Amino acid sequence: VQLQAYGGGLVQAGGSLRLSCVASGRTFSSYTMHWFRQAPGKEREFVAALTWSGGSTYYADSVKGRFTISGDFAKNTVYLQMNSLKPEDTALYYCKASPSYSGSPLPKPYDYWGQGTQVTVSS
Fold it and tell me: What is the pLDDT of residue 71?
C-alpha cells in the first residue's frame, strides 16, 4: 500500500497550487482521506479531510475558504486545491488515509501516510 503525494512547489503569496495524493495497492472506498502539513520547528497539523462515502469534508479554520479538498474515486486520488496562499502556508504537506476522520497527526493502527510534498510561499 502506498500513498504518493505530489504537486508542491514555490509560489508567490496570493497564488495557487493543487496537490494530488494517489493511492495504490488497495482501494480506500471506506476510508477518510486527509491532508496534514508540518512547518519547520512546528508540529504536524491537520489541514483538510474527505470521506469517500458521503463526501463529507472537514477543514482547519486556518484554510477555510481558501483550500478545497476533493477526490476522484475512480483514480484513487485526492486533491487539495490551495488558493490565496500565504507565507504561513509554507510546509511539507502529507496525505493520510484512515478508517475514519481524525484530525490528530498521531499514528494509529490502519492509518497510511504518504511522503510529503513541499509547498513554499514567498512574500
Answer: 93
